[in-house]
Amino acid sequence: MLIGLTGSNGILGKKLVSLSKNIKFSYFNGDIRNFNQVDNWVKNTNLDSIIHLAAIVPIKKVNLNNQKAYNVNYLGTKNLVDAIKLRKKNKIWFFYASTSHVYSKSNKLLKETSKVKPMNYYAFTKLKSEKYLINNKKDINYCIGRIFSYSSHLQKRDYFIPNIISKLKNKRKSLVINNVNHYRDFLPIEDVAKAILILNKFKSKGIFNICSSQKILLSDIVTLLNFKNKKIKFINEHLTSLIIGSNNKLKKLNWKPSHLNYLDYLKKYEKNYNF
Known about the structure:
The chain is α/β, with parallel strands linked by helices and about 280 residues long. The protein has ten helices and 13 strands.
């Protein structure tokens, strides 16, 4: 089996490779925005699958350059799909890493069939890519993974948990932290990588939520990580929101979260974050 992988230099790509035994990868190291480079890679490698992780992320980075995000996140995906379509005799299984942010905020568990309404420009580029895949379903075996929040000690401070840990480790005795009255759904990065590998194993088709289905209040994460017992003032400027997914569809493939309680996991591995 030969798997084509984009985004191999990202933390999720590296984790996926590290967990893959007896699997060979072909890494795309070119410019995903350049169709000729993408097409040559697909044409000159005998790929069984492609796992497409390359993207401009996180949201803060996307907002700095919407045009670049559009070109990489959407046009890059379109280039891959179009290159695969040219090889109709070899129908490559294609995994697309999307996001929970394509959903509309809801008080209920978000299912794969729930209403979509992109929450930000990053989600807009991801949903547009999803639609392109779905519109070409006759020519491509696609699988869309809507990935909810995940954590890794290799994440930079643009992400919520590293950002909070960085603030808590500074020398100030008190902190003001904004907008943590929201509920989110977190997984360790290992669980996300394992989910993608299972979807590849079964060559699953359609849309799958990759999530814990656990309701985690952001302020509880802050409190948990406050080992130095700093005085914290929470200022919540927005109404409480929920982005919690249903993982029932994925669990039917014998995948499950590695921890019953994400906060227990975070408490155990917090020491790995070095800022």
